[in-house]
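Hi R.,

Here's the chain you asked about this morning:
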Amino acid sequence: MDADPYLRKLHFRAHHRGTREADAMVGGFFDQYHAQWSAEDYAWFERLLEEQDVDIMAWALQTAEPDPLLAGPMMDLLQRLDFIQLPEGLNTAGK
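And the predicted structure, written out as tokens:
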């Protein structure tokens, strides 16, 4: 884990959302991408962390339109969901 207290705080908040699904989604997003973020991207992520899990998940799954303040390239990246690792046995597509 990073020695930077700011990054440790964001990591904790990203991984302790309240549900396992939100922890995986928000925490996985942080883990995968935070190293390449700009100051503006970090500000966006902090704004995202203030939102309700149900809203974040709906935006990421594209079942609801994101808050206009959060729409844009970072939301597009979140919506890719290419950072989610499913536990072994849960990926049953094609079986």
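The helical segments are 5-15, 20-33, 39-49, 53-60, 73-80.

Let me know if you need anything else.
M.
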